[in-house]
Request: fold
Amino acid sequence: MTQLYRASKGQITDEMQKVAENEGIDVQKLARRVAKGYVVIPTNNNRNTKPCGIGKGLSTKINANLGSSPELENVNLEVNKAQMAVEYGADAIMDLSTGINYKKVRKAIIKNTNVPLGTVPIYQAGINASKKRGAVINMEEEDMFKAIEEQAQEGVDFMTIHSGITQDTVEKVKESERIMGVVSRGGAFLTAWILHNQEENPLYSNFDYLLEIAKEHDITISLGDGLRPGCLADASDIPQMSELLILGSLVKQARESGVQVMVEGPGHVPLNQVEANMQIQKTVCHGAPFYVLGPIVTDLAPGYDHITSAIGGALAAKAGADFLCYVTPAEHLSIPVLRDVKEGVIASKIAAQAADVAKGHKIAWAKELDMAKARKNFDWEKQYQLAFDPEKPKKCRERKPTDRNDMCTMCGEFCALRMVRNNM
Reply:
């Protein structure tokens, strides 16, 4: 049975209890939101996952993408990335591996972490079709559902499923004036498959069967935005919105089947369109938790896209996004290394905290007040402890050590806090 089904029957699960305790909210209120589909708790029945609530009234959560590629495949490196992401505050991990040892990577991450793990099963289906039949476009329907079933049995907690890529939405892309076309890898797999085979997407036409698998294992379906914009100029266009309308209908279908579901959102969006995108999704998708990549708010910062996405992520989360997928400095350039993972997670944590403070989240505000008191009292160790990256502020302070503990080398004797405090 799924968390949604149990909540709809008035049952309080251990996972709901732990999420309520961590969030500081009433467990009955949380259960009602789970029952309505406003909150999801991704936790596969086959895995002992640390409970994480995503959705209405909860703190903004962070996801870290990682995974091997055909160009760079190192199982231990991907495990280290996953562990580093969790160490610096990632609430969930997505394994996007497309190298030949993708199964080893996935199983190793499951073994060595306990936060919710997400995948994109169409990658596995496409890789296998390419090996067996020469190309991704030669996937068969059985390949797609076999990958979903296999990953569900292994313990994957949530899966990106591109069911909004249909013959109709693909036609809208062809008719549009998009610059970047289809930038989602999973979306491209299915778009190419539809164009080649002239058939409907099985993940859409047989969505009921997909829900049966998800319900059996309590997989949270993350409805993928296969037609998300890949540059600012393509944001909020007809293909993007057409796909979103389909996802809204699939949200209702999933909930009626007792399956937890969230919706993925755009990646490149001008700052003035971010809030509207969040509001449209919440309306069209019936309040389902919204999972956004960034969003990136300028295309001119390769190497710094963790910053552009943090700007967009803060505004998106303030306007209704519940789950931020980090973006690393390596975005659009290369597979991220450990340092990129750390910087990406911290940038997203900053965005999430800023948004939670703006929304009045009690735990977020408590941390801000603790930091203010620590600064007032020159309690450096407390400041390091509260910081998203404890080592960086410590290293900054140690650049030119001072014997005085009640000042830093920026102001020295002219420290504003000391002068005012000592005379009041």
Summary: The two ends are 62 Å apart (CA to CA). The mean pLDDT is 95. The chain has two domains: 3-358, 363-421. The first strand starts at residue 39 and ends at 40.
